[in-house]
Specification:
This protein is mainly alpha-helical and about 290 residues long. The chain is built from eleven helices and four strands; from the N terminus they run αααββαααββααααα. Helix 2 crosses helix 8, helix 5 packs parallel to helix 8 and helix 9 crosses helix 11. About 15% of the residues are buried.
Length: about 290
């Protein structure tokens, strides 16, 4: 793979750091949920977002009447019996013996039911016929994707201990994630407070500050004698009144990392962005 040139890489970083944010009155929660769920299922089924074919990366298209629909290739992929089974194998690996990896949606639904995660759509368990129905029953597919996500996050958080006061068991994954995100936010807040503590000023007879610590606007002080001489010449050697001020940089606002106590604290996306920055600071900067 050929690396992108620096200008293109910088443009991609800017696009990632400053995404387009729709106003709340224009935000479609149902559409966002469908897009995120389909993107996760397809990317997991293909073993990573980079392996997804181009025509499947955006599941929606807009017709001539400005109405959004699911692309036909995506519909055919969902109705087929292998995309969800592949997502299971890539995300969770083979099940414990003697169980075998699911070969079709019926086996996958049975496996999820044995784990206590049956997909529910319209107050009834999802059947294999619901997943093969045409026109597509998107609610049934989203329920199956939700169960797959819960199975994945349950497995991923198995090694995390339950937070204080949370009941142990496989259903404590939500409290585990909230506690983990809260810990990350607290560590970032403590680091920010340490870095933002003002350093004590050096004594008058102490060593000079290194060049990196000197005021970046002090260079124009050297122009003051020349300015005085020019003003004296222009004013007939009368002592002029010269006023100048030193530019002050605006105070830098320290980022704030509020505590994460419930799912509502994840609504703004700030806690999730902080977690990404904590583990991948080059991918998502605080600025």
């Amino acid at each position: 793979m050929v690396a992108a040139p620096p200008a293109a890489a910088a443009a991609m970083r800017r696009g990632f750091l400053v995404p387009e944010i729709r106003p709340l009155d224009q935000y479609d929660g149902a559409r966002a949920r469908s897009a995120a769920s389909l993107a996760w299922a397809i990317a997991t089924g293909y073993g990573g977002a980079g392996n997804v074919p181009e025509e499947l990366r955006d599941p929606f298209y807009t017709d001539q009447y400005e109405q959004e629909h699911i692309k036909p290739p995506v519909t055919r992929l969902l109705v087929a019996s292998d995309i969800y089974c592949r997502a299971w194998r890539h995300a969770l690996g083979p099940p414990e013996p003697p169980a075998a990896p699911p070969a079709d949606n019926g086996a996958l639904l049975a496996l999820l039911t044995r784990r206590g995660l049956p997909p529910i759509f319209q107050d009834a368990p999802v059947r294999e016929a619901d997943l093969q129905h045409k026109p597509i029953k998107m609610g049934a597919h989203l329920a199956l994707i939700d169960s797959l996500m819960v199975a994945f996050v349950t497995e991923a958080t198995r090694g995390l201990g339950p937070p204080p006061g949370a009941p142990p068991g496989p259903n404590s994954w939500e409290q585990k994630i909230l506690c983990w995100l809260d810990t990350v936010n607290r560590k970032l807040q403590e680091r920010t407070e340490r870095e933002g503590t003002p350093r004590p000023a050096a004594p008058p007879d102490g060593p000079a500050a290194p060049p990196s610590m000197r005021c970046p606007t002090r260079w124009y002080w050297k122009l003051v004698p020349h300015a005085i001489a020019f003003c004296l010449k222009e004013s007939g050697n009368k002592p002029p009144v010269i006023r100048y001020r030193k530019d002050k940089a605006p105070p830098r606002q320290s980022p704030c990392f509020p505590p994460v106590l419930g799912m509502k604290d994840l609504a703004s996306g700030g806690a999730l962005a902080a977690a990404i920055h904590y583990y991948c600071p080059q991918a998502l900067r605080l600025e």
